[in-house]
Amino acid sequence: MKIKDKSFKVLINEEELQKKIASIAKQINKDYKGKSPLFIGILNGSFMFVADMMKHVKLESKVSFIKLSSYSNMSSSGSIKELIGINENVFKKDIIILEDIIDTGLTMASVTEEFKERGASSVEIATMLLKPNSLQVELDIKYVGFEISDEFVVGYGLDYDGLGRNTRDIYQLKPS
Ligand code: XMP
Ligand code: MG
């Protein structure tokens, strides 16, 4: 696949992705039995992950989305980003954050902190992808889809310069 000046090859295909998402949802159904968690997706990248995940969630639960100031081009800026659009009251709620990818972990660390400050009963993270070698903070991540190398990835919600979100597979940058 080509996007602008870059070439990408498939890293995780649709079938692997869907199987993993179903198994995470199954685990969440078990872990939150009798509870009513509030799922919060981080836009834009998580929209496909959230949609496919929620099809398997059997709990009485709400879904909402927040946005953070954007990740520009191909490297994480590392700066603390502002949350936009928390309309849901998170006080005394069991929050499950749904994220596309965790890189340095700085974004998730600040989002988690913010929800705790707002009085959430519990805050857990479910991420589709994790770059464990890039982590810069200690982060308790309860659900991880796939651990990947530091390679830049696109597809299935993830973008290169806003493009490439609309694929069923996840792609990795081909070395040029
Ligand atoms: P941190 O570093 O705070 O950043 O964990 C997480 C956010 O960075 C973006 N990100 C990527 N986006 N391909 C992308 O399309 C990547 O390989 C990649 N690595 C990090 C992503 O927006 C995530 O929310
Ligand atoms: Mg994102």
Order of helices and strands: EEHEHEEEHEEEE
Structural class: alpha/beta
Helix content: 10-25%
Distance between the termini: 13 Å
Number of strands: 10
What is the beta-strand fraction? 25-35%
**Strand arrangement across the biggest beta sheet:** 5-4-3-6-7-8
Name the poorly predicted regions.
none
Bound ligand species:
xanthosine-5'-monophosphate, magnesium ion
**Major sheet characteristics:** 6 strands, mixed
Average pLDDT, rounded to a whole number, is 92
Taking Cα atoms only, what radius of gyration do you get, to the nearest Å? 16 Å
Number of helices: 3
Shape: globular
Map the helices and strands.
Layout: E1 2-3, E2 6-12, H1 14-31, E3 38-43, H2 47-54, E4 62-68, E5 83-84, E6 94-102, H3 106-117, E7 122-130, E8 143-147, E9 153-154, E10 170-173
Parallel strand pairs: 3-4, 3-6, 6-7, 7-8
Antiparallel strand pairs: 1-2, 2-10, 4-5, 9-10
Helix pairs in contact: 1-2
Xanthosine-5'-monophosphate (XMP) binds next to strand 6, helix 3 and strand 9.
